[in-house]
# Entry
Amino acid sequence: MTAVTRLAGGSIATPEGTLDQVDVLVAEGRIIDLVAPDARVDIADGVIDVTDRIVAPGLIDMQINGGWGGDFTGNPCSISEVAARLPSTGVTAFMPTIVTSSPAQRQAAFEALADLETGPDAASALGLHFEGPIISPNRPGAHNPKYIGVPSPAEIDTWTRRRGVAIITLAPEVSGATELISRLADQGIVVSAGHTECSAVEFATARAAGVSMVTHLFNAMAPFSHREPGPIGATLADESVFVSIICDGIHIDPVAVRMAYRALGPARTILVSDAVAALGLTDGTVLLGDLNVTVSERGVRTSDDVLAGSNLALDQAIRNLVRFTGCSPAQAIRAATTNPAQVLGLTDRGRVQVGCVADLVVFDRNLELELTIIGGHTTWKS
# Structure
């Protein structure tokens, strides 16, 4: 008989922003039923007591560059090690992010993804996120300027969903971007606008071509002006584009986070860590691609004092969003679960629903992480 586990006594976080008191039944790596707390279920073999806790979908990080000393761009073989550690932050699925770099480094990332072997307790790598190199040379952030540009047509031909490309961040104003956006979006790749100086008109053209997301709003893009709204104004005025935010209180002032959240609402906000190799480490120096970056209380920065990703854990980003905006816990959880799944076209992740993958996290009422479950099995416990 199939073994069934019951998460009993808690409340599930719903995309509608509510906490619904139901028990979750899990078997063979899937959610098989949601039942009332007092419902008798004879087939339950084990019970996990989550009384007065919040049961949420596993977190999905759409932009993470590394962690625990491993940098995906410089050493893509570190993806497996980071995958094993991410459940301690509530992340059960992620997109290894490769920053602007050489064609050889992107090829190495493809090879590492194809050869990736992770244990059953590790987070799932759902595909690569190429952040660059097709970005504005005027908005490089911490990306190495010498690699910025449009790759050869032969290389771009290899950027397919089947091969493992999930997301591409590019600047819509780059020559030829409109045609490339259409081509990539038609293949099921999420195209995100970022590291850009595009005008509102160029943004609208990119949206029509297939851009469905904006990468780390406010950061590495032209500032807003009431006469030249640029990418920030165009994003906040848009009705449906998804928008990622690095909610660490360093990349964006909490007041700006609150402003953006009021414009975007719970249905379009996506929390990303943009974590680099510094995630999980104390102060010191690590690599981002081929650049040395230093970790301190002021964040992760290059020698020129440019922000270079973060050491933010995604569960902390959820707590920060509640603190900065006053949104409900369930709404904040949605920004790291349901919304990423929706933009990626995943129908069996990001929700606590029958038929979904049993990747779950358990928070206390202060949104402190207590338990991470992957495929129905406890993989991390506080």
